[in-house]
Amino acid sequence: MIKGDGNGKQIRDWLYVDDHARALLHVALTGKISETYNIGGHNELQNIDVVKTVCSILDELVPSKLNGIDKYEQLVTYVGDRAGHDVRYAIDATKIADELNWTPDETFATGIKKTIQWYLDNKTWCEHVQDGSYQGERLGLVGK
C-alpha cells in the first residue's frame, strides 16, 4: 500500500458532474423508496495522473506562454498531505448499474476534457470567484 506522503498517489473515483446529476434524477424517478444507491464513475485514478491529464489537455488547448515553461506539467509542485488524509476513496456502484440500469455516459477522458473546456470558456466567472466578487449567488436565472 502506498502511504500518503505528498506524492500524488492517492486514489479517487472520478465522475463527470452531468453524469452525477443524471444519476440523482434517475434514482429519484426509478429507485426504490428507502434504498441507497452509490453513484460512482468506475474511474479510479491517482491524483497525480489526473493532474498530468489536466496539464496535457491544457498543453493541447492553450499552449503555455510562460517564459521557460514548455509544458504545464513543469509547474506541478508536491506538498505534504494533511493529517488524516485518506489514501483511497472508492465507491461500489454495482447496485445502481444492476438494479437501475444506470452507468455514466462520460469516460474520465471525455468528462475531464469537457470540464477543462468549461473553465476555459468561463474565465470571467473564474476571475470573479478568485477576486471575491462572486458571492455564491445563483447564475443563469430566467428574466434576470
What is the oligomer described by this structure? single chain
Q: Work out the number of β strands.
A: 2
Main β-sheet, in a few words?
A: 2 strands, antiparallel
CATH class designation: Alpha Beta
- In whole angstroms, the N-to-C terminal distance is 52 Å
Architecture overview:
This protein has 144 residues and is mainly alpha-helical. The protein has a single domain (11-131), classed as NAD(P)-binding Rossmann-like Domain (Rossmann fold, 3-Layer(aba) Sandwich). The chain has helices at 17-30, 47-61, 94-100, 108-121, 123-131, and strands at residues 11-13, 44-46. Helix 2 (47-61) crosses helix 4 (108-121). The longest helix is centred in the middle third of the chain and has 15 residues, at 47-61. The termini are far apart. The mean pLDDT is 91.
Offer a concise description of the structure:
With 144 residues, the protein is mostly helical. Helices cover 41% and strands 4% of the residues.
Furnish the topology, listing elements before pairings.
Elements: E1 11-13, H1 17-30, E2 44-46, H2 47-61, H3 94-100, H4 108-121, H5 123-131
Antiparallel strand pairs: 1-2
Helix pairs in contact: 2-4
